[in-house]
Amino acid sequence: MAVGAIYLLTVLVSVFATDADSISRTDQGPIQCPEPYFRVLSQCFRLYDDKRRSWEESKALCYGNGLVLAHPKHPIDVRAAIVERGQKYAWLNARGDGTVMVWEDTDDYISNTNALWFHGQPGSRVTADYCLRLLSIEENMNSTPVQPLLAYTCSSTKTAAGRGLYALCELK
């Protein structure tokens, strides 16, 4: 009986020691993203800007490459990283459900009053026909800061001004 208790205690100690070791290793330095990904804080992203894509095409491209359509924890920082690569508009992993935008990977929703919405958004653009796009411009012509989130027609491959919409994938 004592041998069984010692064995169980040894197993528990090794399990907890392994978990603690992996946490400390993770916390020892910044996350490294392999090429061609770019890092934004604790996430790795890849922008596929070789051709314009709809939201569904973008989602399929990410999935086909073992990735997911991006769900950035810090959209403003991700936007800044994309602006450094040229001002590209990118699809994110959220879609309207009739009342709000919902992150497809977590089922969390984006409040319609979230401060990150572009001016006047989302309004009525929360049906399943609308998906979330990241604006990769930081200010408008009047030097007014522009918020990064915009609801846009999922089937679109370009903006009303003719700019392309691209897949922003995340390495999970």
UniProtKB/TrEMBL annotation:
Keywords: Signal. Residues 40-155 form the C-type lectin domain. Gene3D superfamilies: Mannose-Binding Protein A, subunit A. InterPro entries: C-type_lectin-like (IPR001304), C-type_lectin-like/link_sf (IPR016186), CTDL_fold (IPR016187). Residues 1-20 form the signal peptide. SUPFAM superfamilies: C-type lectin-like. The keyword Transport does not apply. This is C-type lectin domain-containing protein.
